[in-house]
Amino acid sequence: MPEGPSIVILREEVAPFTGRTIRRAEGNAKIDMARLVGQPVVAFRSFGKQTLIELPDVTIRIHLLMFGSYRIDERKEAAPRLSLQFDEGELNFYSCSVRLLEGDLDELYDWRTDVMSDAWDPALARKRLRAMPDTLACDALLDQDVFAGVGNIIKNEVLFRIRTHPLSTIGALPARKLRELVEQARQYSFEFLAWKRAFVLRKHWLAHNKSICPRDHVKFHRAYLGRTNRRSFFCELCQRRYVES
Q1: Domain residue limits at 100
Q2: Residue pair 142/152 in contact by the 8 Å Cβ criterion
Q3: Most buried in the list 8, 18, 43, 140, measured by CB within 10 Å?
Q4: Are residues 41 and 83 in the same domain?
Q5: Nearest Cα to 113, choosing from 134, 132, 127, 130?
Q6: Residue 188: inside a domain, yes or no?
Q7: Cα(224)–Cα(228) distance, integer angstroms
C-alpha cells in the first residue's frame, strides 16, 4: 500500500495537468464519468494516502489501496479503474478506489492530521493518542485519524528507531517516548520521501522486511500484530515493551 510520501510524489508527477480540461473519462469505477467531461483540473492535492483531483464542481478521490498503480501518458494491458484523457496526455489509475466528493475539501479534511502537510499539528496528535491509552503502538501509528499517511513501513521503522516494542500500549509510554513517536512519524515520513525520490528507500530500511537487528545482531521477530493485523518486524532486546503495571 503506497504511504503518504509516495502519494506526495504522485501529486507532484501529475501536477503538469493542472489547468487542463478533461476531454474523456472512462474506466470501470462506479462513478458518473459524464460529470467529469469538460471540467478543468483546478488542483491536485493529497491527504494521507489519498490523491485528490479538484474540479470546479466535484473532487475525484483516489485511494490506491494495497495494489493500486497509475500511469502517466501510457497504459497497462489491464482495464483502468479511471482514465482521464486531455488534449495532451492522459492519466490512468488501476486497482484503486475511486469516489466523487462533494463540497469544500478544507471542510472535509483536517489537514492537521496529515504527516506530510504544512498544517501538521503534533500537539493534536499527542492529544488524540492520550485519548486512546489501551491502543497498541503498532495500531496507533496506522490510525489515519492521528497519522494520515503513515503506513506499515513507516510504522516498523519508527518503532525501531525509538526503541519501542509494537505491543506497547500508548497509555504506558512515558511522555518523552510519546513525543518521540509523534516527532519521528513526521521526520521519518520526510526522510522516506527524500529516499524514495532518490530511488534508495529500501537501502535505508533498518527493520522493515529485515531478518537481523542491526543493533543487537539477533534475529528480528516477525508477526502480524494488533487490531490492524499488519506485519511487524521488531527486536525483543532493544525495543522495550511498555505496558501498564
Answers
A1: 4-108
A2: yes
A3: 140
A4: yes
A5: 127
A6: yes
A7: 8
CATH code where residue 152 lies: 1.10.8.50
Q: What is the pLDDT of residues 158-184, one digit of tens each?
A: 999 999 999 999 999 999 999 999 999
Residue 226 and residue 133 share a domain: yes
Q: How many folded domains does the chain comprise?
A: 2
Q: How many CB atoms lie within 10 A of CB 184?
A: 20
Report the C-alpha dihedral over residues 13, 17, 23, 28, rounded to 10 degrees.
30
Give per-residue pLDDT as tens, 34-92: 999 999 999 999 999 999 999 999 999 999 998 999 999 999 999 999 999 999 999 99
Please report whether residue 240 resides in a domain.
no
114 exposed, middle or buried (CB, 10 Å; 0-12, 13-18, 19+)?
buried
Starting at the edge strand found earlier in the chain, the sheet holding 90-94 runs 24-26, 82-85, 90-94, 69-72
The DSSP letter of residue 141 is T
Q: Are residues 132 and 227 in the same domain?
A: yes
DSSP letters, 154-193, are HHHHHHHHTTB-TT-BGGGS-HHHHHHHHHHHHHHHHHHH
**Gap between the Cα atoms of 139 and 155, Å rounded:** 9
Last residue of a domain, which of 43, 78, 108? 108
Q: What distance in Å separates the CA atoms of residue 235 and residue 57, rounded to the nearest whole number? A: 50
Strand-pair partners of 100: 60
Domain co-membership, 178 together with 78: no
Same domain, 186 and 130: yes
**Virtual torsion, Cα 185, 156, 138, 122, nearest 10 deg:** 0
